Amino acid sequence: MTQIKRTAIPLSSVLAKVLESMQSDGKPNQEQIQAVWARVAGEEAARHSWPQRLYQLALVVEVENSGWIYTLNLRKAELLEGLIELLGTGTVRRLEFRIGERKNG
C-alpha cells in the first residue's frame, strides 16, 4: 500500500486565500470604495461624507447635513463618472446621499 505524504499548511495562508476569494467576485470592498470616494469627491467633501454601502449598483453615501446633500447632488454626474472610471463599468450606476453619523471603528 502506498502512503500519501502530507504537509502542514500554515493557517494564515489558508485564511488569506479564503479572504482573497471572497473579494474576487469583481466587487470592490469597503476600503477600496472609501479610497476611491476620497479621490473622486476631493479632500473637503470626503471629510464631510463617507460611503456607507454599495447596494444594487447604488452607492449610498452618508453626509453630515443637508448642505452637503445639496452640494454633492450638484456634482452627482461628475462624481458618478469618476467612480465608474476608477471602480469599473457595472459597479456603480446611482448615487444616493443621506444624512448620517460617521461610525468610528
What is the tally of beta strands? 3
CATH class of the domain at 28-99: Alpha Beta
The CATH homology group name of the domain at 28-99: DnaA, N-terminal domain
**Assembly state:** single chain
Percentage of helical residues?
40-55%
What is the number of helices? 5
Tell me the CATH topology of the domain at 28-99: GMP Synthetase, Chain A, domain 3
What's the Cα radius of gyration? Answer: 19 Å
What strand order characterises the main sheet? 1-2-3
- Distance N to C terminus: 55 Å
Please provide a written account of the structure.
The structure is a single chain. This protein is an alpha+beta fold and 105 residues long. The chain has a domain at 28-99: DnaA, N-terminal domain (GMP Synthetase, Chain A, domain 3, 2-Layer Sandwich). It contains 5 helices and 3 strands, in the order H-H-H-E-E-H-H-E. It has helices at 11-23, 30-41, 43-48, 66-74, 76-87; strands at 49-55, 58-63, 94-99. It has a 3-stranded mixed sheet. Helix 2 crosses helix 5 (76-87). The chain starts with 10 loop residues before the first helix and ends in a 6-residue tail after the last strand.
Give a brief outline of the structure.
This protein is an alpha+beta fold and 105 residues long. Helices cover 50% and strands 18% of the residues. The chain has a domain at 28-99: DnaA, N-terminal domain (GMP Synthetase, Chain A, domain 3), CATH 3.30.300.180.
Helices and strands, with pairings:
Blueprint: H1 11-23, H2 30-41, H3 43-48, E1 49-55, E2 58-63, H4 66-74, H5 76-87, E3 94-99
Parallel strand pairs: 2-3
Antiparallel strand pairs: 1-2
